[in-house]
Design brief:
With 466 residues, the chain is mainly alpha-helical. It is 78% helix and 0% strand. The chain contains 20 helices and no strands. α18 (397-424) runs antiparallel to α20. The mean pLDDT is 91. The structure holds phenylalanine. Phenylalanine binds at residues 20-21, 23-26, 94, 97, 223-224, 226, 229, 231, 321, 324-325.
């Protein structure tokens, strides 16, 4: 049998894994949630959850990958034949996230080109660019195809020459660009309003909305660390013996949180200092409208350059995450019933999986990321079932995909994983593999992890239905 690929260096693995963790969740969800769910108080809860639940679960995932030397599905099958579904839940969730990442990443490419043009002195882009773009389905689809193609291209290069080499270049670039932007924004008048909103701890809010803070922080933490989506298992499976998993998981958790905070220091101060009153401060609206307006207002070559940097950061974050998800999906396809085949098969598998993600993304592009009212899943369903209420859940395909992946499959997979780690394989084995005490892992897998996941599941389903 062909020997399994390995990372070239410890740093290479860390860059790839931090790249997988840092994604759109850090850039558009974290700053908004931090600012609206108690500021510094949210940060404290988030930090505690990351240390007590996120990092131990991350360690478990990486360790399962390394000790079995397999991708997510076969790794969990090796733990127990009846638990392969945990791997499938992760791969499916990752595949769905990858699908909508294709559209969002594609939109980023379009913005990078737009601001590059502005920097080079092309006529200023029109206002309301996002509205215009989301109405042009063909353009959205083309850019999504480009994003899927680039993602496939990186994965085609293999573990060392593709993923590792790309991450070693992309992650420092991403951090450098984000630091530059944060520095520039800090010098703008009014930026302090944004910082206050981000960091001032609202203990009163925490006391009166404790459950909301807990559910929001837990959901954000799982998604942001890319837990239970198959990616960390597959990246762990390329790790050599002797690598200290406990240190790596701690570095990944810390870097992911720091980059999310840094993103907050760009988005909110800039949004507040320069976005008009009533500007959208969450989701697609925050990234593609408010931030667009901010750079547009700065105008000219400077605004163009800053906009290019910003959307370059978002694009790289989406791409490094996309690559990890594609690698997880491909590894599941590769290991199905032990089919490996030659290099030609491998290429076909990678391109096939990228194409599949692209096909799955089409509905998200078709309803214009939820901006074209007649095309949402609810509008389609109401043609057959006119009695369905018009409101009551987030009716875009993007909303549906997010709900299925983050809201259902990820928590189920994460719960299964905690149960396997805590009861089937046992925290002692993982503790030995990672080089930490088994007490810490045991409490996390048996009690804290499942409790946090059940909270997330409850919160997501409630939010989806209301
Ligand atoms: N962690 C990424 C983010 O914060 C999302 C992601 C999920 C990436 C699953 C890979 C796998 O956006």
């Amino acid at each position: 049998m062909k020997q399994r690929s390995t990372w070239g260096s410890s740093l290479g693995f860390l860059m790839a894994a931090v790249g997988a963790a840092v994604g759109l969740g850090n850039l558009w969800a974290f700053p908004y949630k931090l600012a609206t769910t108690g500021g510094g108080a949210f940060l404290v809860v988030y930090g505690v959850l990351t240390v007590l639940v996120g990092v131990p679960v991350l360690m478990g995932e990486i360790a399962v990958g390394r000790c079995t030397g397999r991708g997510p599905v076969e790794a969990f099958r090796a733990m127990h034949p009846r638990w392969a579904w945990v791997g499938w839940a992760g791969v499916l969730a990752g595949g769905i996230v990858l699908a909508y990442y294709c559209v969002l990443g594609g939109v980023c490419i379009r913005y990078v080109l737009l601001f590059a043009g502005e920097m080079l002195g092309a006529p200023a882009a029109e206002n309301g660019f996002y509205r215009l773009l989301t109405g042009q389905t063909r353009e959205l689809v083309l850019y999504a195809l480009l994003f899927a193609g680039i993602t496939g291209g990186v994965v085609l290069g293999g573990v060392r020459q593709g993923i590792e080499r790309f991450s070693m270049a992309a992650m420092p670039l991403l951090c450098g660009m984000l630091l530059l932007l944060a520095g520039y924004v800090a010098l703008q008048p009014g930026a302090e309003r944004g910082y206050a909103l981000l960091f001032r701890p609202d203990w009163q809010y925490l006391r009166s909305h404790f459950m909301t803070v807990l559910v929001t922080a837990a959901g954000q933490m799982f998604f942001s660390l890319s837990v239970a989506m198959g990616t960390m298992v597959v990246y762990g499976s390329y790790l050599r013996r002797g690598e200290r998993i406990s240190r790596d998981a701690a570095v990944i958790g810390a870097a992911d949180t720091l980059i999310a905070l840094l993103a907050g220091c760009v988005l909110l101060p800039a949004g507040f200092a320069l976005g008009e009153d009533g500007a959208e401060m969450s989701g697609c609206g925050l990234l593609f409208e408010t931030m667009y307006r901010v750079f547009h207002r700065w105008g000219g070559r400077l605004g163009g350059g800053l906009g290019l940097l910003f959307f370059g950061v978002v694009f790289l974050a989406a791409l490094t995450s996309g690559v990890s998800m594609l690698e997880a999906v491909v590894s599941a396809a590769r290991e199905r019933k032990g089919r490996h085949g030659g290099p030609g098969w491998e290429k076909g598998r990678i391109l096939g999986c990228a194409l599949l993600a692209f096909l799955l993304c089409l509905p998200v592009a078709w309803d214009g990321l939820g901006t074209l009212p007649g095309r949402t899943p609810l509008a389609l369903l109401r043609q057959w079932l006119p009695r369905l209420p018009e409101q009551g859940w987030n009716g875009s395909f993007l909303g549906l995909y997010t709900f299925l992946s983050e809201g259902v499959l990820m928590p189920l997979g994460a719960l299964g994983m905690c149960l396997i780690l805590g009861y089937r394989c046992g925290p002692e084995r993982i503790a030995r593999e990672c080089g930490v005490g088994s007490g810490y892992l045991g409490v996390s897998y048996r009690v804290l992890g499942p409790a946090a996941i059940l909270l997330v599941l409850y919160g997501q389903i409630r939010a989806f239905l209301t």
